[in-house]
Amino acid sequence: MLILLNGCEIDRNKNVDRSKFQFTIGDDAELFFRNVRQIYYDRASPDGTWQAYSFHDRYKGNERPVIVPVIVINWIKDEAYLLIDTNDLLADEDELRVIISNTQPDTIVLRDRGRERMLEFGSKLFEAIQANQSMQIKNKGIYSPMLTEEVDREAFRVTMADFYRLIRVF
Questions:
Q1: Which residues, in sequence order, are CB contacts of 72 under 8 Å at separation 6+?
Q2: Which pLDDT does position 62 carry in this prediction?
Q3: Cα distance between residue 65 and residue 143, in whole Å
């Protein structure tokens, strides 16, 4: 039983190898995502050439600021991208500025969106979650705690792990 429970925590302690960052999806990763993982996501496809996957069990309210990673798959190019989305509380922010608390507080900023910048930003948040660090986000000029609820942290972690599997980082 103990082995079974440990098996359910797939990717919980894996490190992110930035040298493996790319956006091409392997056939095996695509099959795994389509057949096993996509059932955990809400899907949107405005034009049919790409689909956006948002983790179904994410927080959908507006009482606290939340950053949500979204997996975007372009099936024609066999590529996957990470989109950093927010709830309505952060919708008017020109940039996302997060302080990650550790021995030396680190401030990360997502100002200009681009696939590389969003992947790096999401990866830093993922690593902070893995290290159980606290985070604060600037919202209307004030820093507020972010990703404090287990549902928020787990939705972020699982989405990032699925994305890393798609692009073969894990």
A1: 50, 51, 52, 53, 80, 81, 82, 83
A2: 93
A3: 10
Residue type, 133: Q
The separation between the first and the last C-alpha atoms of the chain, rounded to the nearest angstrom, is 25
pLDDT by 10-residue block (mean), the chain, 170 residues: 46 77 94 96 90 96 96 94 96 96 91 95 97 96 96 97 94
Q: Do the Cβ atoms of 54 and 42 come closer than 8 Å?
A: yes
Element (H, E) at 19: none
96, 137 contact by CB (below 8 A): yes
Tokens 């939705």 — which residue? 155
Which helix (H) or strand (E) is 70 found in, with range?
strand 67-74
> CA–CA separation, 38 vs 49, rounded Å?
17
Spatial separation of the C-alpha atoms in residues 29 and 18, rounded to whole Å: 18
CA distance 151 to 76: 33
DSSP state of 78: T
Q: Which residues pair with 135 in a beta bridge?
A: 100, 146
Question: What single DSSP character describes residue 88?
Answer: G
Kindly list the distances between the CA atom of residue 148 and the CA atoms of 29, 60, 66, 135, 156, in Å, as whole numbers in the listed order: 31, 15, 10, 8, 12
What are residue 79's DSSP bridge partners?
A: 24, 74
